[in-house]
Amino acid sequence: MEWTALIFEEITSVLVEAGEPSYRAKQLAEWIYGRAILDPAKMSNFSGALKDLLKSIGSFQALEPVKVQESEDGETWKFLWKLHDGALLESVLICSEKRRTVCVSSQVGCPAKCAFCASGKMGLKRNLTTGEIVEQVLKIQSFLMEKGEAVNHIVYMGMGEPLANFDAVVKSLRILTDPQLFGLSQRHITLSTVGLVEEIYKLSQESFKINLALSLHAPNQHIRKKIIPYARKYEFDELMKAIDDYHEVTKRDITYEYILIAGINDQVEHAEELAKLLQYRQCTVNLIPYNPVQGLNLEKPTRPDISAFRDVLDEYEIVHTCRYTKGDDIAAACGQLALQEA
Ligand code: SAH
Q: What's the rounded Cα separation, in Å, for the pair 168 and 342?
Protein backbone atom coordinates (compact mmCIF):
# COMPACT_ATOMS: atom_id res chain seq x y z
CA MET A 1 0.00 0.00 0.00
CA GLU A 2 1.20 3.52 -0.84
CA TRP A 3 0.37 6.26 1.66
CA THR A 4 0.33 8.78 -1.18
CA ALA A 5 -2.43 6.83 -2.94
CA LEU A 6 -5.06 7.37 -0.24
CA ILE A 7 -7.78 9.99 0.04
CA PHE A 8 -8.26 11.53 3.48
CA GLU A 9 -11.05 9.16 4.57
CA GLU A 10 -8.88 6.19 3.65
CA ILE A 11 -5.93 7.53 5.63
CA THR A 12 -8.24 7.93 8.60
CA SER A 13 -9.72 4.45 8.41
CA VAL A 14 -6.33 2.79 7.93
CA LEU A 15 -4.99 4.56 11.02
CA VAL A 16 -8.06 3.85 13.12
CA GLU A 17 -7.94 0.18 12.16
CA ALA A 18 -4.32 0.14 13.33
CA GLY A 19 -5.46 1.41 16.72
CA GLU A 20 -4.49 5.06 16.29
CA PRO A 21 -6.74 8.02 17.17
CA SER A 22 -8.41 9.57 14.14
CA TYR A 23 -6.67 12.95 14.59
CA ARG A 24 -3.48 11.23 13.42
CA ALA A 25 -4.82 11.40 9.88
CA LYS A 26 -4.71 15.17 10.02
CA GLN A 27 -1.20 15.12 11.41
CA LEU A 28 0.02 12.72 8.77
CA ALA A 29 -1.66 14.69 5.99
CA GLU A 30 0.05 17.82 7.29
CA TRP A 31 3.46 16.16 6.97
CA ILE A 32 2.89 14.64 3.56
CA TYR A 33 0.82 17.32 1.84
CA GLY A 34 1.33 20.43 3.93
CA ARG A 35 5.10 20.10 4.18
CA ALA A 36 5.90 17.65 1.38
CA ILE A 37 7.80 15.44 3.79
CA LEU A 38 7.81 11.78 2.82
CA ASP A 39 10.38 10.46 5.23
CA PRO A 40 8.76 9.25 8.47
CA ALA A 41 12.08 9.83 10.29
CA LYS A 42 11.48 13.56 9.84
CA MET A 43 7.95 13.52 11.23
CA SER A 44 9.12 14.97 14.50
CA ASN A 45 5.90 14.84 16.51
CA PHE A 46 5.57 11.08 15.95
CA SER A 47 7.09 8.56 18.33
CA GLY A 48 9.53 5.93 17.12
CA ALA A 49 6.88 3.26 17.57
CA LEU A 50 4.40 5.22 15.48
CA LYS A 51 6.95 5.80 12.71
CA ASP A 52 7.60 2.04 12.63
CA LEU A 53 3.90 1.33 12.54
CA LEU A 54 3.36 3.72 9.63
CA LYS A 55 6.24 2.16 7.71
CA SER A 56 4.93 -1.33 8.34
CA ILE A 57 1.49 -0.39 7.01
CA GLY A 58 2.54 1.30 3.80
CA SER A 59 5.31 2.79 1.71
CA PHE A 60 6.02 6.51 1.56
CA GLN A 61 8.29 6.92 -1.41
CA ALA A 62 8.54 5.33 -4.81
CA LEU A 63 10.62 7.90 -6.70
CA GLU A 64 14.35 7.88 -6.34
CA PRO A 65 15.93 11.08 -7.68
CA VAL A 66 18.42 10.39 -10.48
CA LYS A 67 19.03 13.77 -12.07
CA VAL A 68 17.75 17.34 -12.07
CA GLN A 69 18.47 19.57 -15.05
CA GLU A 70 17.89 23.29 -15.29
CA SER A 71 17.33 25.06 -18.59
CA GLU A 72 19.63 27.92 -19.56
CA ASP A 73 17.04 30.57 -18.82
CA GLY A 74 16.50 29.04 -15.36
CA GLU A 75 12.76 28.69 -15.91
CA THR A 76 12.37 25.01 -16.69
CA TRP A 77 13.57 22.08 -14.68
CA LYS A 78 13.51 18.45 -15.68
CA PHE A 79 13.50 15.76 -13.02
CA LEU A 80 14.46 12.19 -13.74
CA TRP A 81 13.40 9.53 -11.26
CA LYS A 82 13.97 5.82 -10.93
CA LEU A 83 11.07 3.62 -9.84
CA HIS A 84 11.17 0.42 -7.76
CA ASP A 85 11.30 -1.79 -10.85
CA GLY A 86 14.13 0.24 -12.38
CA ALA A 87 11.83 2.06 -14.81
CA LEU A 88 12.68 5.71 -15.42
CA LEU A 89 10.26 8.56 -15.19
CA GLU A 90 10.39 12.27 -15.98
CA SER A 91 8.52 15.30 -14.66
CA VAL A 92 8.98 18.93 -15.60
CA LEU A 93 8.65 22.14 -13.60
CA ILE A 94 7.87 25.26 -15.60
CA CYS A 95 8.27 28.63 -13.88
CA SER A 96 6.67 31.56 -15.58
CA GLU A 97 6.04 34.76 -13.64
CA LYS A 98 3.98 33.63 -10.64
CA ARG A 99 3.09 30.27 -12.12
CA ARG A 100 4.78 27.18 -10.85
CA THR A 101 3.48 24.42 -13.07
CA VAL A 102 4.31 20.77 -12.63
CA CYS A 103 3.98 18.68 -15.75
CA VAL A 104 3.38 15.12 -14.54
CA SER A 105 3.77 11.86 -16.36
CA SER A 106 1.00 9.28 -16.15
CA GLN A 107 2.68 6.26 -17.73
CA VAL A 108 6.14 4.95 -18.44
CA GLY A 109 6.29 5.31 -22.20
CA CYS A 110 3.08 5.88 -24.12
CA PRO A 111 0.72 3.72 -26.15
CA ALA A 112 -0.28 6.54 -28.54
CA LYS A 113 2.79 6.55 -30.78
CA CYS A 114 2.07 9.94 -32.35
CA ALA A 115 4.31 10.64 -35.34
CA PHE A 116 5.84 13.78 -33.79
CA CYS A 117 6.42 12.68 -30.21
CA ALA A 118 9.47 11.13 -28.57
CA SER A 119 7.51 9.56 -25.71
CA GLY A 120 5.65 7.18 -28.00
CA LYS A 121 8.75 5.84 -29.68
CA MET A 122 9.39 3.33 -26.91
CA GLY A 123 5.77 2.20 -26.70
CA LEU A 124 3.97 1.68 -23.40
CA LYS A 125 6.11 0.16 -20.64
CA ARG A 126 3.56 0.34 -17.84
CA ASN A 127 0.98 2.46 -16.07
CA LEU A 128 2.07 4.56 -13.12
CA THR A 129 0.41 3.95 -9.78
CA THR A 130 -1.56 6.71 -8.05
CA GLY A 131 1.26 7.19 -5.57
CA GLU A 132 3.84 7.53 -8.31
CA ILE A 133 1.77 10.29 -9.92
CA VAL A 134 1.10 12.15 -6.67
CA GLU A 135 4.70 11.87 -5.54
CA GLN A 136 5.99 13.69 -8.64
CA VAL A 137 4.07 16.74 -7.42
CA LEU A 138 5.19 16.32 -3.82
CA LYS A 139 8.86 15.98 -4.69
CA ILE A 140 8.73 19.13 -6.81
CA GLN A 141 6.73 20.87 -4.09
CA SER A 142 9.52 20.10 -1.65
CA PHE A 143 12.09 21.41 -4.16
CA LEU A 144 10.11 24.67 -4.46
CA MET A 145 9.44 25.03 -0.73
CA GLU A 146 13.15 25.28 -0.14
CA LYS A 147 13.01 28.49 -2.18
CA GLY A 148 9.90 29.72 -0.40
CA GLU A 149 7.67 28.86 -3.37
CA ALA A 150 4.93 26.35 -4.07
CA VAL A 151 3.32 24.44 -6.91
CA ASN A 152 0.21 26.27 -8.10
CA HIS A 153 -0.66 24.53 -11.37
CA ILE A 154 -0.52 20.93 -12.52
CA VAL A 155 -0.74 19.70 -16.08
CA TYR A 156 -1.09 16.04 -17.01
CA MET A 157 1.03 16.57 -20.09
CA GLY A 158 4.15 14.59 -19.40
CA MET A 159 4.87 11.16 -20.68
CA GLY A 160 1.93 8.86 -21.29
CA GLU A 161 -1.76 9.10 -22.09
CA PRO A 162 -3.54 9.95 -18.82
CA LEU A 163 -6.93 8.63 -19.90
CA ALA A 164 -5.35 5.27 -20.75
CA ASN A 165 -4.48 5.01 -17.04
CA PHE A 166 -7.90 6.23 -15.98
CA ASP A 167 -8.35 4.92 -12.43
CA ALA A 168 -4.92 5.86 -11.12
CA VAL A 169 -5.13 9.28 -12.74
CA VAL A 170 -8.61 10.02 -11.36
CA LYS A 171 -7.54 8.99 -7.88
CA SER A 172 -4.47 11.24 -8.12
CA LEU A 173 -6.79 14.10 -9.08
CA ARG A 174 -8.90 13.46 -6.00
CA ILE A 175 -5.86 13.51 -3.74
CA LEU A 176 -4.26 16.57 -5.30
CA THR A 177 -7.49 18.58 -5.11
CA ASP A 178 -8.72 17.40 -1.69
CA PRO A 179 -8.63 20.44 0.65
CA GLN A 180 -7.56 18.12 3.48
CA LEU A 181 -4.65 16.84 1.40
CA PHE A 182 -2.82 18.78 -1.35
CA GLY A 183 -5.77 21.08 -1.88
CA LEU A 184 -4.99 22.54 -5.29
CA SER A 185 -7.90 24.24 -7.02
CA GLN A 186 -9.41 22.04 -9.73
CA ARG A 187 -9.33 25.04 -12.03
CA HIS A 188 -5.54 24.99 -11.81
CA ILE A 189 -5.29 21.49 -13.21
CA THR A 190 -5.33 20.54 -16.87
CA LEU A 191 -5.47 17.05 -18.25
CA SER A 192 -4.35 16.59 -21.82
CA THR A 193 -5.56 13.67 -23.90
CA VAL A 194 -4.96 12.32 -27.36
CA GLY A 195 -8.73 11.80 -27.43
CA LEU A 196 -10.05 8.56 -25.92
CA VAL A 197 -13.78 8.95 -26.48
CA GLU A 198 -15.16 6.54 -23.87
CA GLU A 199 -12.85 7.88 -21.18
CA ILE A 200 -13.71 11.50 -21.97
CA TYR A 201 -17.38 10.67 -21.23
CA LYS A 202 -16.34 8.85 -18.10
CA LEU A 203 -14.26 11.80 -16.93
CA SER A 204 -17.16 14.21 -17.34
CA GLN A 205 -19.13 11.98 -14.96
CA GLU A 206 -16.48 12.28 -12.23
CA SER A 207 -17.80 15.71 -11.18
CA PHE A 208 -14.45 17.45 -11.46
CA LYS A 209 -13.97 20.99 -12.67
CA ILE A 210 -10.58 20.36 -14.13
CA ASN A 211 -9.62 21.71 -17.54
CA LEU A 212 -9.47 19.38 -20.46
CA ALA A 213 -7.03 19.82 -23.31
CA LEU A 214 -7.46 17.83 -26.49
CA SER A 215 -4.42 17.09 -28.62
CA LEU A 216 -6.28 17.77 -31.84
CA HIS A 217 -3.30 18.68 -34.06
CA ALA A 218 -5.28 18.56 -37.31
CA PRO A 219 -8.37 20.26 -38.72
CA ASN A 220 -9.78 17.04 -40.17
CA GLN A 221 -9.70 13.30 -39.82
CA HIS A 222 -7.60 12.76 -42.93
CA ILE A 223 -4.59 14.67 -41.59
CA ARG A 224 -5.20 13.59 -38.01
CA LYS A 225 -4.99 9.92 -38.93
CA LYS A 226 -1.66 10.48 -40.59
CA ILE A 227 0.01 11.79 -37.45
CA ILE A 228 -2.03 10.22 -34.63
CA PRO A 229 -2.56 6.45 -34.86
CA TYR A 230 -5.31 6.62 -32.18
CA ALA A 231 -7.39 8.74 -34.56
CA ARG A 232 -8.17 5.56 -36.48
CA LYS A 233 -10.18 4.33 -33.54
CA TYR A 234 -12.81 7.06 -33.55
CA GLU A 235 -14.62 9.20 -36.09
CA PHE A 236 -13.69 12.86 -35.96
CA ASP A 237 -17.29 13.92 -35.20
CA GLU A 238 -17.57 11.33 -32.47
CA LEU A 239 -14.49 12.79 -30.77
CA MET A 240 -15.74 16.37 -31.07
CA LYS A 241 -19.07 15.28 -29.62
CA ALA A 242 -17.37 13.79 -26.56
CA ILE A 243 -15.39 17.00 -26.08
CA ASP A 244 -18.55 19.12 -26.42
CA ASP A 245 -20.18 16.91 -23.82
CA TYR A 246 -17.29 17.50 -21.40
CA HIS A 247 -17.72 21.24 -21.88
CA GLU A 248 -21.47 21.07 -21.32
CA VAL A 249 -21.28 18.93 -18.21
CA THR A 250 -18.35 20.67 -16.52
CA LYS A 251 -18.79 24.20 -17.94
CA ARG A 252 -15.06 24.33 -18.43
CA ASP A 253 -13.70 25.77 -21.65
CA ILE A 254 -11.74 23.34 -23.74
CA THR A 255 -8.17 23.85 -24.88
CA TYR A 256 -7.32 22.48 -28.29
CA GLU A 257 -3.64 21.78 -28.66
CA TYR A 258 -2.37 22.09 -32.17
CA ILE A 259 1.19 21.22 -32.99
CA LEU A 260 2.36 23.05 -36.11
CA ILE A 261 4.43 20.82 -38.38
CA ALA A 262 5.85 22.31 -41.57
CA GLY A 263 3.93 21.29 -44.68
CA ILE A 264 1.63 18.92 -42.82
CA ASN A 265 -0.89 21.03 -40.93
CA ASP A 266 0.55 24.56 -40.77
CA GLN A 267 -0.83 26.19 -43.91
CA VAL A 268 -3.48 28.89 -44.20
CA GLU A 269 -5.99 26.38 -45.59
CA HIS A 270 -5.55 24.27 -42.47
CA ALA A 271 -6.04 27.33 -40.28
CA GLU A 272 -9.27 28.15 -42.16
CA GLU A 273 -10.58 24.66 -41.66
CA LEU A 274 -9.65 24.67 -37.99
CA ALA A 275 -11.26 28.08 -37.50
CA LYS A 276 -14.49 26.88 -39.07
CA LEU A 277 -14.49 23.81 -36.88
CA LEU A 278 -14.04 25.80 -33.67
CA GLN A 279 -15.68 29.15 -34.33
CA TYR A 280 -18.87 28.40 -32.40
CA ARG A 281 -17.14 26.51 -29.65
CA GLN A 282 -16.00 28.18 -26.44
CA CYS A 283 -12.37 27.32 -26.40
CA THR A 284 -8.75 28.29 -26.63
CA VAL A 285 -6.37 27.01 -29.24
CA ASN A 286 -2.86 26.38 -28.02
CA LEU A 287 -0.47 26.35 -30.94
CA ILE A 288 2.74 24.43 -30.34
CA PRO A 289 5.43 24.78 -32.98
CA TYR A 290 6.88 21.30 -33.45
CA ASN A 291 9.90 20.68 -31.25
CA PRO A 292 12.43 18.59 -33.12
CA VAL A 293 12.76 15.03 -31.91
CA GLN A 294 15.82 13.02 -32.83
CA GLY A 295 15.17 10.42 -35.48
CA LEU A 296 11.89 11.94 -36.63
CA ASN A 297 11.76 13.33 -40.11
CA LEU A 298 9.60 16.38 -39.46
CA GLU A 299 10.27 20.08 -39.74
CA LYS A 300 9.53 23.10 -37.56
CA PRO A 301 7.09 25.61 -39.06
CA THR A 302 8.59 28.87 -40.35
CA ARG A 303 7.90 32.15 -38.55
CA PRO A 304 5.87 33.60 -41.45
CA ASP A 305 3.75 30.45 -41.61
CA ILE A 306 3.09 30.63 -37.88
CA SER A 307 1.97 34.26 -38.14
CA ALA A 308 -0.20 33.61 -41.18
CA PHE A 309 -1.85 30.76 -39.27
CA ARG A 310 -2.46 33.00 -36.28
CA ASP A 311 -3.88 35.75 -38.49
CA VAL A 312 -6.57 33.41 -39.73
CA LEU A 313 -7.53 32.45 -36.16
CA ASP A 314 -7.68 36.16 -35.32
CA GLU A 315 -10.00 36.81 -38.26
CA TYR A 316 -12.40 34.23 -36.87
CA GLU A 317 -11.94 35.63 -33.37
CA ILE A 318 -10.65 32.38 -32.00
CA VAL A 319 -8.74 32.84 -28.78
CA HIS A 320 -5.31 31.35 -29.19
CA THR A 321 -1.88 31.27 -27.66
CA CYS A 322 1.38 30.06 -29.02
CA ARG A 323 3.29 27.92 -26.58
CA TYR A 324 6.74 29.36 -26.54
CA THR A 325 9.08 26.51 -26.32
CA LYS A 326 10.46 26.14 -22.86
CA GLY A 327 13.22 23.85 -21.83
CA ASP A 328 14.16 22.57 -25.26
CA ASP A 329 17.85 22.89 -24.38
CA ILE A 330 17.34 20.16 -21.78
CA ALA A 331 14.88 18.15 -23.91
CA ALA A 332 12.07 18.97 -21.51
CA ALA A 333 9.86 20.61 -24.12
CA CYS A 334 6.61 19.06 -25.33
CA GLY A 335 7.15 15.75 -26.98
CA GLN A 336 10.78 15.51 -26.00
CA LEU A 337 10.42 13.41 -22.88
CA ALA A 338 12.20 10.20 -23.73
CA LEU A 339 14.19 9.16 -20.70
CA GLN A 340 17.89 9.54 -21.11
CA GLU A 341 19.84 8.75 -18.02
CA ALA A 342 23.22 9.70 -19.42
N1 SAH B 1 -1.00 11.87 -24.28
C2 SAH B 1 -1.50 13.16 -23.90
C3 SAH B 1 -0.57 13.85 -22.95
C4 SAH B 1 0.77 14.29 -23.53
S5 SAH B 1 0.70 15.99 -23.58
C6 SAH B 1 -1.81 13.97 -25.13
O7 SAH B 1 -1.58 13.48 -26.23
O8 SAH B 1 -2.37 15.06 -25.02
C9 SAH B 1 2.04 16.44 -24.50
C10 SAH B 1 1.66 17.52 -25.50
O11 SAH B 1 2.82 17.81 -26.29
C12 SAH B 1 0.61 17.01 -26.47
O13 SAH B 1 -0.24 18.02 -26.91
C14 SAH B 1 1.50 16.52 -27.58
O15 SAH B 1 0.80 16.33 -28.73
C16 SAH B 1 2.54 17.60 -27.64
N17 SAH B 1 3.74 17.18 -28.36
C18 SAH B 1 4.19 15.92 -28.51
N19 SAH B 1 5.33 15.91 -29.24
C20 SAH B 1 5.60 17.17 -29.55
C21 SAH B 1 6.67 17.81 -30.27
N22 SAH B 1 7.65 17.10 -30.82
N23 SAH B 1 6.64 19.14 -30.38
C24 SAH B 1 5.66 19.87 -29.79
N25 SAH B 1 4.64 19.33 -29.11
C26 SAH B 1 4.61 18.00 -28.99
A: 30
